[in-house]
Design a protein that fits this description.
This protein has 117 residues and is α+β, with helices and mostly antiparallel strands. It has a single domain (2-113), classed as Beta-Lactamase, CATH 3.30.450.30. 38% of the residues lie in helices and 26% in strands. It has helices at residues 5-8, 34-62, 98-109, and strands at residues 13-19, 25-30, 71-75, 79-84, 87-92. It has a 5-stranded antiparallel beta sheet, with helices on both faces. The chain is globular and about 45 Å long.
Length: 117
């Protein structure tokens, strides 16, 4: 997933990471030390699992499909975390377009759905 650097060109993105299926850090770029990148990878993996469980509950309650989460965000006062699949960005709220970040994350994680050109 060496394309993580593509996320750093999106205005407001200060760091990005990719985590493995077990929640361990696979790769990180930007302004994030290794210890914090490892902690963020584990947190994002766990949060993604919780989001999927919530989707399963909504499907059971509604009796319909269509609830699988594709991404999520956790907004803080100055910084936020945005995630799609197993790729995460830390962004500066004052500088970022959340639409641009989620578009870039979706293009990176689901390239067939976003062909170039």
């Amino acid at each position: 997933m060496s394309d993580l650097n593509k996320l750093l060109v999106v205005k407001g993105v200060i760091a990005a990471l990719h985590f493995s299926d077990d929640g361990s850090l696979a790769e990180s770029v930007g302004e994030l030390d290794r210890t914090h990148a490892n902690l963020l990878a584990a947190m994002c993996y766990a949060n993604g699992r919780i989001m999927h469980q919530g989707g399963d509950i909504l499907m059971a309650l509604s009796g319909t499909g269509g609830w699988p989460p594709h991404g999520w965000m956790m907004m803080g006062g100055k910084l936020s975390v945005c995630a799609v699949a197993d790729v995460v960005c830390i962004v500066s709220n004052d500088e970022v377009s959340f639409n641009a970040v989620f578009r870039a994350l979706a293009e990176l994680t689901h390239p067939a759905a976003y062909p170039p050109g």
